[in-house]
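User: Hi! I have a protein structure encoded as tokens and I'd like to know what sequence might fold into it. I'm fairly new to this, so please keep things simple.
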């Protein structure tokens, strides 16, 4: 927790003492002249407000940790994390950064499982996509276009996620140890009905999405067709029968279009 600079005016020293006590009342004395009951109400109000944002965004993390460890982690965040964002809706993102910063030292109190930073990020992604200001411009996309001959157009409200754990399966019945790491690709997106969806991908589907994402935005003439992208994947795999890769890739793209992760082809 940041200490106040030397030589501050009295009212600023009081402000520092006041906020230090709010952040961590167990380690910082209540400022002189403040009635204990009123200070306690203020402490609870601010902490509970922050924790309520965390509980809504990270229900699985909360369930995995249990009440005691969750409260200790939330208290540690409230007391010690220096937020870079002033908005309440960005509190969950700051919590993810806080947990990631602790990821190299998971045994420091309060302890948490090695997979927790990835699980927290996975849970936060739903909020990030839900509030994203991006939107699809369907006037530039042919929703029924040929996915092989045209340049595939991804939903702009989309994230390709890569984790060392199967975070989408974590729950009370599955909590992997570091020895149970499992390379996992997920596609998260907001469909045209404003519903956030997740799809588990195999490595080929993940590579297909990554190559489409790499296409230069706004440069229609330079975008590759679906066929060209699948030929590149076939070459990378050194597959003996490129037709098999092409057929599989077309099926993947069609499935993604049905779910509105892929919206069609660029016009």
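Assistant: Happy to help. Inverse folding works backwards from shape to sequence: for each of the 267 positions I chose a residue that suits the local structure. Here it is:
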């Amino acid at each position: 927790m940041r200490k106040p600079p030397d030589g501050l005016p009295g009212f600023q020293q009081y402000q520092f003492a006041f906020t230090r006590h709010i952040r961590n009342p167990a380690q910082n004395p209540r400022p002189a002249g403040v009635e204990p009951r009123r200070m306690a109400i203020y402490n609870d109000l601010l902490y509970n407000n922050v924790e309520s944002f965390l509980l809504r965004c990270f229900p699985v993390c909360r369930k995995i940790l249990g009440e005691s460890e969750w409260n200790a982690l939330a208290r540690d965040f409230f007391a010690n994390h220096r937020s870079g964002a002033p908005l309440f809706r960005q509190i969950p993102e700051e919590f993810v950064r806080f947990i990631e910063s602790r990821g190299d030292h998971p045994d420091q109190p309060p302890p948490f499982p090695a997979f927790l930073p990835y699980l927290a990020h996975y849970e936060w992604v739903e909020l990030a996509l839900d509030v994203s200001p991006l939107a699809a411009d369907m006037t530039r996309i042919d929703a029924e276009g040929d996915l092989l001959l045209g340049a595939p157009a991804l939903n702009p409200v989309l994230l390709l996620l890569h984790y060392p754990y199967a975070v989408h399966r974590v729950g009370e019945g599955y909590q992997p140890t570091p020895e149970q790491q499992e390379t996992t690709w997920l596609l998260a997106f907001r469909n045209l009905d404003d519903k956030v969806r997740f799809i588990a991908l195999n490595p080929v589907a993940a590579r297909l999405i990554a190559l489409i994402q790499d296409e230069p935005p706004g440069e229609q003439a330079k975008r590759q067709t679906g066929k060209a992208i699948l030929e590149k994947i076939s070459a990378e795999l050194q597959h003996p029968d490129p037709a098999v890769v092409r057929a599989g890739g077309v099926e993947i793209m069609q499935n993604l279009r049905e779910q509105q992760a892929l919206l069609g082809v660029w016009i």
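A useful reference point when you look it over: The chain has two domains: 7-112, 134-267. Feel free to ask if any position seems puzzling.
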